[in-house]
Every structure is written in structure tokens, then in C-alpha cells.
Amino acid sequence: MAAFEGKSVLVLGGSRGIGAAIVRRLAADGAAVTFTYAGSREAAEQLAAETGSTAVQTDSADRDAVIARVRDSGPLDVLVVNSGFAVFGDALEQDPDAIDRLFRVNVHAPYHASVEAARQMPEGGRIIVIGSVNGDRMPVPGMASYAVSKSALQGLARGLARDFGPRGITINVVQPGPIDTDANPENGPMKELPHGFMAIKRHGRPEEVAGMVAWLAGPEAGFVTGAMHTIDGAFGA
Ligand code: NDP
Fold first, then answer.
1. Of all protein residues, whose CA lies closest to atom 33 belonging to ligand 1?
2. Domain range for 67
3. 2 in a structural domain
4. How many structural domains comprise the chain?
5. Would 124 be classed as within a structural domain?
6. pTM
7. Catalytic residue among 35, 37, 111, 146
8. What does the alpha-carbon distance between residue 163 and residue 157 come to, in Å, rounded to a whole number?
9. What is the pLDDT of residues 140-181, one digit of tens each?
10. Where is the Ketoreductase domain (predicted)?
11. So what's the pLDDT on residue 5?
12. Among this protein's residues, is 37 annotated catalytic?
């Protein structure tokens, strides 16, 4: 399928997990994909060779580097901001610098990247940010900073949808529940508890999230903006 033939795509955080599945899907659908990574050079280079995409090292915690990467990759038809992580543990014990870094990667980077992408984006451009169902529901202690960061993306999409809508540019948040990746392996600690209250009692697959991203990035989704799209086996229902 060549749904994205001739389209220029940048995925921030594309070397592993959900981001890598998005790179694979959009490249297979014909897009010219560039993706960033932080530390996983080998995984990034392998993925680039496998998919014919371009891997570049850019730390999403570095605001100016993120802005420069988006600017220099433009004009983009599609921006996907996937890079993100959680810090677990007692909020009273956590290192404030680690929490600030989380906010830089999970909130500041999506904001600045989205604004920068929109400067050059043509009419009909697409911005997709990977949030989390934890932006809606946080059923366990020790992940407040992560919940804050993913809730913030909801305001980002609602607000920037208003700014960019007149140019036909959409911005949406995809909110996964537990997805089987290095960060949350299906057989890891986050299995019994969430599966207990989910309707589909398994982790999702990165490819399932990539499918939703591909739809939002495509021509059928031109009237969809400022919205949250949850893919979570009813984790948050
Ligand atoms: P992984 O840890 O498996 O992969 C994270 C990806 O993001 C890697 O490619 C990594 O690059 C990149 N990345 C992380 N930090 C940075 C950074 N500072 N700069 C550039 N790239 C970075 O995570 P997942 O695939 O599980 O998660 C991806 C997104 O989905 C995150 O935003 C996460 O919050 C969200 N999500 C995940 C869920 C899950 O259950 N897995 C559930 C809900 C949301 P590198 O390889 O170089 O480290």
C-alpha cells in the first residue's frame, strides 16, 4: 500500500517499541520517514536499514535540539511525537532533576516540536502525539509525574487544534493502555494488576497503536482534531 507515497514524516523517538512500529508502518505505506533516538544507536541503525528510513540522534530533553531537528526536517506532512518515559516511585523521595527531565521529554518536546512543525507544514498536515490512558486514569501510586505529563498533552492538542485548524492541520493524542514494549513488557510487573480490570486481558501490540496513528495521519481523518484516541483494552473504561 502506498497511502503515504510522497509524504515526509518525522517520528521523535522511533528506534524501539511503539515508535519503531510507527516507523515500520508509515515507511511500508510509502512515506519518507526520518526518526530520532536517544541512546539506542544500534537498534536505530538496524531499523533504518530495514525500512529505508533515516535515523538521527536527538535527545528530546534538549529543547533547542528538538526545535532544530524539526526545522531542519521540514516541511513535514506528518509529525509523530512518541518519545516519552515514566519515573516510578514515592513522590516524596524522587529526584527533582529526574522529574524535570521527564517533563522536558514528555511535555516540552511535544509542545515545541508541534509548534515548530506547524511553521512549515502544508495545508492538511498531521501532528500526532503519543499520550497515555494514564492521562485519564491513574490507578496506582508512584506515577504522578507521568500522569501529569500525559494529561498535559490533552491541553496541548485541544489548544493547538484551535491555532492550526484554519490551515487544515490536525493535532491529536493517541492514548495507549499497556503495550508490550521494553518499557512495559507483557510478562513484566504490569501484567496481573491491569489485566485484572481490562476487558481485553492482554497487553496491546505496538503495531495496533501504529495502525491508529496511520489512520489519524491519513486522508480520512481530516475532520478529526483536538481529540484523544484511546487504545487500551478498556483499561480506562
Ligand atoms: P520504549 O522505552 O520501548 O521506547 C521509547 C522510544 O522513545 C525509544 O525509541 C527511545 O529511544 C525513545 N526515547 C526515549 N527517550 C528519548 C529521548 N530523550 N530522546 C529521544 N528519544 C527518546 O517505550 P514505549 O514504546 O513503550 O513508549 C513509547 C511512548 O508510548 C511513550 O511516550 C510512552 O509514554 C507511551 N506509552 C507507552 C505505553 C506502554 O505500555 N508501553 C502505554 C502508554 C503510553 P532510545 O531507543 O534511543 O532510547
1. 84
2. 8-231
3. no
4. 1
5. yes
6. 0.98
7. 146
8. 10
9. 999 999 999 999 999 999 999 999 999 999 999 999 999 999
10. 7-182
11. 97
12. no
